[in-house]
Specification:
heterodimer, A: alpha+beta, 23% helix, 30% strand, B: alpha+beta, four-stranded antiparallel β-sheet, 43% helix, elongated
């Protein structure tokens, strides 16, 4: 045989080997992706069967209806995924029955008709018998096959550590014909958190500090509630909308009806999550709240000049889908359930082990500002002046002389230098404050010192990265961010539309550099507002929204692992990783379907964190905010200028319109004394009960102390 | 231990009962909440018409929905009125009724029927309501009538379409609002009627028209007026007519003055009319003349790609004369003091919470302000915050002339809001009254009150002069003495008279002729004069004393000014050279440039002098600065004429004509340049759109 022929045969064989092996690999990959492979489907029979038991809970499943419930072994109380015997209900319409009995709710985009359609798992899968149920350790998997939409999806439900974990595992959504039907959103267990309209109870929606949705029927005329968990998605340049209310800041849902309480936390996938809620009587007789998740991001893009009548809009879709885990963890309180008890449960999740973080243990937080002002010389050429509103000596003196036992000082920088792409100057105010103070003295005093990295948005991402981090090397190694410049107070969208942000691949390195710089300085930590918001994404570029989210989560989580990261406005994807949450919104957006604000988040984080995102002295009703801080066990938070208030007039610093420390010194000391008195009588114990009726708030602490606040007279009394 | 538990149990049971009792009480009470948070920020405007953050002067404390009252849900309510006998009347238009509440916002009754001579008739769609001496005045737009009823609903009079030549036949009579003055005269606003309000006797007899808006004298209006003088009647008839804008709403105060508000006007949206219909509302002079007389937002905003403006729908004046106007477009309330100074802006639009979707009516109820939202069918009650109360008290003392008494309140306000310029003005007045003129100047400067600053400066200057005049006088006398002693050794005049500049300024024709003859023109002169001219401009804008300087020193960009000066100068010289070449002018481009530069010298010097003078003069003495500038200007123009006359060898008239034609040419050049830039922008935008479409539609 000729060598050439041998070569050809060898080449053919090699090719064959490669081809076969690649086929094997792909088939193995496919097998791996299918979490039900190797599992035998269960029979579909009526009646509930035990499928899991863990930590005092038992999980039962009806494979015929796919309904399941969790039973508390001690109390015998049951919590159903959706109401029982819906089929026999004569009042409900067929559409309502399908909606209520669905564990999953899908939103599709019909590419031919160009319309959005909502489908329910019960209607398009269970009723048609197109589903399989598999048993897994302490739980089960339901694989829904939607024939019309040519898609399959798995829901994994199991008990773990005394909690119910429901998830859509990564890769378990398989689209066979995305060219016909695009899956946009998936909502999980829409009726797990529910209450009948004629019963008493509340759902807490994480809007601001917490909003209550009563089970009553009178809100049926109001619009449904739907907001992204982390508020506006600033990483998506196309979906920036004027801010009309406060963003949701912590992912949770809680439900309490006197008999039991349920807390739902989206432990994975919250970055693409939405909170949805309906009042009783809206579509069903139940008030319900649930999490939805964006599987494929989309938006409306305007082509042409927006002002022009001939501009067109088109729906655009992310090339990439969210293919990571989506998980919601449910926790139950079956005895002595109350909203504060649920809040405490959530606090445990946020800060496992102990709610009191040593580093953050403090009574008073002061935000002290440095500034960079843009001025113009005689010829009108802009230049920046770096100044301090509070000198280093003043800060040291305050830290040393104050009667407060423990204070935290956040050094913040305010500048609009980024408007002219001179971001490097934004580090200078803090540098100047630090250079004029003896850091060692300051650190040795009773003050914790933090440097603040505020929201960052620049015209050019790469330029920002270079200048920002370049400067951090040369000036003290202490990068600080820039204030989100508000040129005009009432023009909601004016500045946001100018912003382009940092591309995601820069963020991780950036966060790392911030942390390194902080360590060099010896400061205790860095706070970051809207850190994730600095990432840039748009639909015309290569980066996808999913990429952006992934990088954000990774970067923030990595930073948090090394300690020292404080999220002061946690619009990001790693709330559970952060060592502290500093600023909390006072209340939510006062959505009409809600019945009033509830300080759920403050109680969850009580004793360690300030009451509100807005400082006491900048609020229009300082005494009321102070009393609310007392009522919720929160620490006191002030924004102060120690030295010189004159530079703020007519500048971008004018939001500090009531921050002169001298003017508020007496008030601050009075607040502090009252605060100490309450803490002393309450013995720093946690809140056991909280009740607001009219203008009165009553807080009961675990040690039995009862604090009553009268907001009519702005007075308080505490007894034990 | 057991005892402890018993105590705890007792304590908890007490709390439990208290809570239950309070809950029971709350069932019967209207939801009242001390709002801790709003979905909007309060703001105000600074001297340069830029919005600045401000604490909210009012906060919403109550939102009343019909379903919380025995009467049931409101349906598109359109008007609210607070009567002298302390009842709140709501025109619940969609429900064909009037709902009456007491001043505590508790339900009293509804009015659903009216009686014509005892015959009952359903009250259909009441759009407006007014109550005077116990009689109800109800507007029914669709029925084209206004009714006067007694408390029982018996109709006492009707106010129907007037029979008058002035009320055109094609005009539909659609009454929208009604009010009654103390003498019983009824005023009715009619939709699309631009000549003010119709007035009727209490019995329903039409009387006259009252107090229309005025047509603003814009450039367009003046130009059209000019052309109309030259046109035939037929041509004039075909031209656009300018008519006043109709009032959107009105109200009346305790002193019988009628306040009107205009929906979409650029200026003078609010008027205070006396019985003759003349506007007697004091106009607060703002720092920028363009902002004076404006009652709405001074900045514009863009929503959904469209620029939006204020749309004022209602006005309410409280017993202290504080004016509140309601902006339907943005759901905001603007509050002004009786001198029309802006105090607070609050409220906002939102689908949820305290935001409005379609705010239609506003009324004051003692200290409260209530707003009807016909979109959400609610009545929202705003109450003054601690800050708002402080401001009101301070303003009232201030307006009554108790400056020293108001100072304490102003100081508290400044602590709460350092951006509030009116507070500094109040502090300035107090300091002035106390004779502390230097401090007064400081406060007036922060308040951008130039008149106040000037007054304080005048006194301060007098104090300084009283102390230093003997020394200054002595020094001047010594200097004069020295000058006379050594005057023979000083050859300043002789040296000056030998310079070219001096020659051009004093005898331009001869000097320029000499220069032309000996070809002494140089571009160095052009460069030097232009640089000096530029610096004079910069000094005038940036360095003129505060009393006379209205510019925002942080906003100007002098590099742009420099480019503009160079552009205009080059354009002027080039165009002049082109034109004079055609008109047998003898001057070359170099001669034209030099002559023009020399002509700028007097004006440049006058500008420098005026800047220096501004530091020593008060506003009353502004005339001296104007005289200096006028001399410089006249001198410069004269020089230019004589220069062109000489270098082009024109007659006087020819020189003047050439300058005028040159100016026209420069205007054309500027116009073409603007056109070119616009065209380039459009081409760029076109290609960007194509690129975007390709990216999105791929």
């Amino acid at each position: 045989m000729k060598p050439i022929a041998i070569k050809r045969i060898l080449a053919f064989l090699l090719t064959l080997v490669f081809a076969i092996s690649s086929l094997c690999v792909s088939s193995v990959s496919a097998e791996d992706a299918d979490i039900t492979s190797g599992l035998s489907p269960l029979d579909k029979t009526e009646g509930y069967r035990l499928v899991g038991e863990d930590g005092g809970l038992k999980l039962y499943l009806d494979t015929k209806t796919t309904n399941f419930y969790v039973e508390d072994v001690n109390t015998g109380k049951k919590t159903f995924a959706f109401p029982e015997n819906v089929e026999n209900n004569e009042v409900l319409t067929q559409a309502q029955k399908v909606e209520i009995q669905s564990a999953l709710m899908f939103t599709f985009w019909d590419t031919k008709r160009k319309t959005e359609n909502i489908k329910y798992s019960d209607g398009v899968s269970v009723k048609q018998g197109n589903y399989k149920v598999f048993s897994v350790n302490n739980g089960f998997i339901i694989k829904y096959e939607l024939k019309s939409q040519k898609i399959s999806i798995c829901l994994l439900v199991s008990l773990k550590d005394g909690k119910l974990v429901c998830s859509i595992p990564a890769g378990s959504i398989v689209e066979e014909a995305p060219e016909e039907q695009l899956l946009l959103n998936v909502a999980v267990l829409p009726f797990m958190i529910r209450g009948e309209g004629d019963t008493e109870g509340n759902i807490v929606i994480p809007d601001g500090s917490g909003e209550l949705l009563n089970f009553e029927l009178t809100k049926a005329s109001e619009a449904s509630y739907s907001k992204p968990i982390y508020g506006r998605n600033l990483s998506n340049a196309l979906t920036i909308e004027p801010k009309t209310g406060y963003d949701i800041t912590c992912p949770y849902l809680a439900f309490e009806n006197g008999e039991k309480g349920v807390l739902a936390i989206p432990t994975k996938g919250a970055g693409v999550g939405y909170v949805n809620a309906n009042p009783a009587g809206k579509t069903t007789p139940y008030a319900n709240a649930y999490f939805g998740f964006v599987y494929r991001a989309s938006d409306i893009a305007i082509i042409g000049d927006q002002k022009s009548s001939i501009s067109q809009s088109t729906r655009v879709f992310d090339d990439c889908v969210y293919d990571d885990d989506i998980t919601i963890t449910y926790q139950f309180i079956h005895e002595n359930s109350s909203l504060p008890a649920l809040a405490m449960l959530y606090g445990e999740y946020l800060a496992p082990g102990s709610k009191a973080n040593e580093k953050m243990q403090t009574n008073v937080v002061f935000d002290i500002y440095g500034y960079v002002n843009e001025r113009k010389n005689l010829l009108g050429i802009p230049y920046t002046t770096v100044g301090v509103l509070s000198s280093g000596e003043d800060i040291v003196a305050l830290a040393e002389d104050t009667k407060f036992s423990d204070i935290t000082i956040n050094l913040k920088s305010v500048t609009k230098a980024h408007q002219n792409q001179k971001a490097e100057t934004s580090v200078q105010p803090i540098a100047k404050v630090l250079s004029s103070s003896n850091m060692k003295t300051l650190l040795a005093s009773n003050a914790n010192v933090y440097i603040s990295a505020n929201p960052i948005s620049f015209k050019s991402g790469s330029l920002w990265a270079n200048s920002f981090f370049g400067a951090s090397k040369t000036i003290y190694g202490a990068p600080v961010g820039v204030y989100e410049y508000r040129e005009s107070t009432h023009l909601a969208n004016k500045n946001v539309s100018k912003s382009l942000m940092l591309k995601p691949n820069k963020l991780e390195k950036g966060v790392q550099k911030i942390l390194n710089s902080a360590k060099k300085l010896g400061v205790d930590g860095i706070s970051s507002e809207e850190l994730a918001a600095v990432s840039y994404h748009d639909y015309s570029g290569e980066e996808t929204l999913v990429d952006t989210h992934a990088v954000q989560e990774k970067a923030v989580s990595k930073a948090a692992e090394q300690g020292g990261l404080i999220l002061s406005n946690p619009f990001d994807y790693a709330i559970k990783y952060c060592s502290a949450v500093t600023d909390i919104p006072i209340s939510g957006s006062n959505n009409d379907l809600c019945s009033g604000s509830y300080p759920f988040l403050q109680i969850a984080l009580g004793n360690d964190f300030s009451y509100s995102v807005e400082s006491i002295n900048l609020n229009r009703s300082p005494e009321k905010v102070f009393l609310m801080a007392l009522a919720t066990g929160s620490i006191l938070h002030y924004d102060y200028i120690l030295t010189n208030t004159e530079p703020i007039s007519g500048t971008e610093l004018n939001f500090l319109y009531s921050a002169d420390y001298k003017s508020f010194q007496e008030m601050t000391e009075r607040h502090y004394n009252a605060f100490c008195e309450v803490r002393k009588i309450a013995e720093n114990s946690l809140i056991k009960d909280y009740c607001k009726v009219g203008n009165y708030v009553t807080t009961v602490f675990e040690n039995g102390a009862v604090l009553t606040i009268d907001f009519t007279e702005n007075t308080y009394s505490i007894t034990k | 231990m057991a005892h402890m538990k018993k105590c705890y149990g007792f304590l908890f049971s007490i709390i439990k009962y208290v809570v239950i009792a309070l809950l029971i009480c709350s069932v019967f009470a209207i939801t009242c909440f001390a709002s801790n948070d709003l979905s909007y920020d309060g703001y105000n405007y600074d001297a340069y018409s830029v919005s600045t953050p401000s604490p909210e002067g009012y906060e919403p404390v109550l939102r009343i929905k019909g379903e919380e009252l025995p009467c049931g849900t409101f349906k598109t309510p359109e008007d609210v009125f607070y009567s002298q006998d302390n009842y709140i009347y709501i025109a619940d238009t969609g429900n064909n009724r009037i709902v009456v509440l007491d001043k505590e916002y508790s339900f009293v009754k509804t009015i659903t029927e009216i009686y014509f001579d005892g015959a009952a008739e359903n009250l259909e769609k009441p759009n407006g309501i007014f109550v005077s001496n116990g009689d109800l005045y109800i507007v029914q737009s669709e029925k084209q009538r206004v009714l006067r009823c007694d408390d029982e609903g018996n109709v006492l009079a009707q106010f129907l379409r007037p029979v008058s030549d002035i009320f055109a036949d094609e005009m539909t009579y659609t009454p929208t609002k009604v009010l009654v003055n103390k003498s019983g005269t009824v005023y009715i606003l009619v939709k699309n009627f631009v000549y003010g309000a119709l007035t009727y006797s209490p019995e329903g007899t039409f009387l006259n028209y009252y107090g229309s808006n005025k047509v603003s004298a814009t450039l367009e209006v003046l130009l059209d007026y000019f052309w109309k003088q030259l046109m035939s009647k037929e041509q004039v008839d075909q031209m656009k007519r300018y008519v006043p804008i109709e009032y959107a709403n009105f109200c009346i105060d305790d002193e019988n003055f009628i306040y009107t508000v205009t929906k979409e006007a650029n200026k003078d949206q609010v008027r205070r009319l006396n019985t003759l219909g003349n506007n007697v509302l004091p106009v607060f002079t703002r720092n920028l003349a363009s902002a004076t007389g404006k009652f709405g937002d001074l900045e514009s905003q863009k929503i959904g790609g469209v620029w939006t403006t204020n749309k004022f729908t209602d006005i309410a004046v409280d017993s202290d004369g504080f004016i509140n106007i309601l902006d339907q477009e943005n759901g905001r309330i603007f509050q002004f003091d009786p001198e029309s100074r802006l105090l607070h802006i609050f409220g906002g639009t939102a689908n949820s919470g305290y935001g409005f979707t379609n705010a239609t009516s506003i009324e004051t109820i003692d200290e409260d302000i209530v707003v009807i939202d016909s979109g959400k069918n609610t009545l929202t009650v705003f109450r003054p915050t601690e800050y708002g109360t402080l401001v009101k008290n301070a303003v009232m003392l201030y307006n009554d002339g108790f400056y020293a008494e108001a100072a304490e309140a102003w100081e508290k306000i400044v602590v709460r809001n350092q951006n509030f310029e009116l507070a500094y003005d109040g502090l300035g007045k107090a300091a002035f009254e106390n004779g502390n003129y230097k401090l007064a100047m400081k406060y007036y400067k922060l308040a951008y009150s130039r008149d106040g600053y000037s007054d304080a400066f005048k006194e301060y200057r007098a104090d300084i002069l009283r102390v230093s005049l003997p020394y200054v006088g002595t020094g001047v006398i010594i200097l004069i003495g020295i000058f006379f002693l050594f005057r023979k050794k000083i050859k300043l005049k002789h040296q000056l008279s030998n310079t070219v500049v001096f020659g051009v300024l004093t005898s331009p024709s001869d000097t320029l002729f000499e220069m032309k003859h000996h070809k002494k023109f140089s571009y160095k002169v052009v460069f030097t004069v232009l640089v000096l001219f530029f610096f004079a401009f910069v000094c005038d804008r940036q360095l003129t004393a505060f009393t006379f300087n209205y510019n925002n020193l942080d906003k100007g960009n002098m590099l742009v000014v420099l480019l503009a000066i160079i552009f205009v100068f080059v354009a002027f010289c080039t165009v002049n050279w082109c034109i004079t070449s055609l008109l047998d002018g003898k001057g070359g481009i170099k001669e034209i440039a030099c002559s023009t530069a020399y002509a700028l010298i007097p004006y440049t010097v006058a500008t420098f002098v005026s800047v220096i003078m501004s530091y020593f003069l008060t506003t009353d003495e502004k005339m001296f600065i104007s005289i200096v500038i006028a001399i410089g200007l006249i001198w410069s123009v004269s020089l230019l004429i004589f220069a062109f006359k000489t270098i082009h060898e024109y007659s006087f008239l020819g020189a003047v004509l050439s300058i005028l034609i040159t100016l026209l040419g420069v205007l054309i050049v500027i116009f073409l340049a603007v056109l070119l830039v616009g065209l380039l922008q459009q081409i760029t935008s076109f290609f960007v759109t194509i690129y975007n479409e390709m990216m999105y539609r791929q």
